[in-house]
Amino acid sequence: MVHFVGAGSGAADLITVRGKGLLEEADVVIYAGSLVNPRLLDYVKPGCSIYNSAKMTLEEVLQVMEDAEGEGKTTVRLHTGDPCIYGAIREQMDVLDQKGIAYDYCPGVSAFCGAASALNLEYTLPEVSQSVIITRMEGRTPVPSRESIQAFAAHHATMVVFLSTGMLKELSRRLMEGGYEADTPAAIVYKATWPEEKSFICTVGTLAQTAEENQITKTALMIIGDVVKAARYDRSKLYDPAFTTEFREASAEETGRKES
């Protein structure tokens, strides 16, 4: 059996209870060494074989899985954050399907959640933004043309940009070309939830300057949108005393007050 496990956004104690249990039971662990906190390896049992996939090709990773399966061993493939976001898990699962090797997937805390926690930020403030766009700049690997930064920027929704720290001048240019003003609030969060975590509030126009001044060159997320510094927003209807839900009747007094 192969278990794809989300390691969480950085802090070793942000792995899920299920994920920690799978790590403790594993005979083989293949972890994304360039991104996963190595303290997570403290959870593995003595004798567990550990492989750093940062130094491996897809074929080498799959060979380790196949060899372990042939020996009746349990493998954990430990990915950063939640593997469903930029985790390259589908290409592994497709080959395991072809080989008849069973697998499952344990979700984790994504870095975009960790970045919000670093800023005590809510991505979906009523009447400010109710949508979150997760994307990245194209670099050595392409992005579909219909998913350009400019096209997404036109929506003025909250944007979280992965894997783009080295391209911030171009990111700013494309955001403004798409419709954001230069003074639109933005943030850079470096190594969210790690001990080295740093966060900086800036604007769309000062993303590159902020990163340069603070020597941030990689392992950061950019958050774009008014939620970063929203001074005003509407209260949630769910907890409004004048709002009826499945579990609570609206207060007649509060309803009358709002209607008057």
Quick structural overview:
The protein is α/β, with parallel strands linked by helices and 260 residues long. The protein is built from eight helices and ten strands.
How do the strands and helices of this protein lay out in sequence?
Layout: E1 2-6, H1 17-25, E2 28-31, E3 49-52, H2 58-70, E4 75-79, H3 90-99, E5 103-106, H4 111-119, E6 132-136, H5 149-153, E7 158-162, H6 168-178, E8 185-190, E9 198-203, H7 207-213, E10 220-224, H8 252-259
Parallel strand pairs: 1-4, 1-5, 2-3, 2-4, 6-7
Antiparallel strand pairs: 7-10, 8-9, 8-10
Helix pairs in contact: 6-7
Describe what this molecule looks like in 3D:
With 260 residues, the protein is an alpha/beta fold. The protein folds into two domains: 2-109, Tetrapyrrole methylase, N-terminal domain (Cobalt-precorrin-4 Transmethylase, domain 1); 112-229, Methyltransferase, Cobalt-precorrin-4 Transmethylase, Domain 2 (2-Layer Sandwich), CATH 3.30.950. It has helices at 17-25, 58-70, 90-99, 111-119, 149-153, 168-178, 207-213, 252-259, and strands spanning 2-6, 28-31, 49-52, 75-79, 103-106, 132-136, 158-162, 185-190, 198-203, 220-224. A five-stranded parallel β-sheet has the order 3-2-4-1-5, with helices on both faces. A five-stranded mixed β-sheet has the order 6-7-10-8-9, sandwiched between helices.
Low-pLDDT segments, ≥5 res: none
Number of strands: 10
The CATH homologous superfamily of the largest domain corresponds to Tetrapyrrole methylase, C-terminal domain
Tell me the series of helices and strands, N- to C-terminal.
Answer: EHEEHEHEHEHEHEEHEH
Strand order, largest beta sheet:
3-2-4-1-5
Provide the CATH topology of the largest domain: Methyltransferase, Cobalt-precorrin-4 Transmethylase, Domain 2
Portion in strands: 15-25%
Termini separation comes to: 63 Å
Number of domains: 2
Report the CATH C-level class of the largest domain: Alpha Beta
Q: Assign a percent range to the helix content.
A: 25-40%
- Rounded to the nearest angstrom, the radius of gyration is 22 Å
Helical stretch tally: 8
User: Per the principal axes of the C-alpha atoms, what is the gross shape?
Assistant: globular
CATH architecture of the largest domain: 2-Layer Sandwich
Quickly give the structural class.
alpha/beta
Main beta sheet strand tally, sense and closure: 5 strands, parallel
Instruction: Give the integer mean of the pLDDT values.
Output: 93
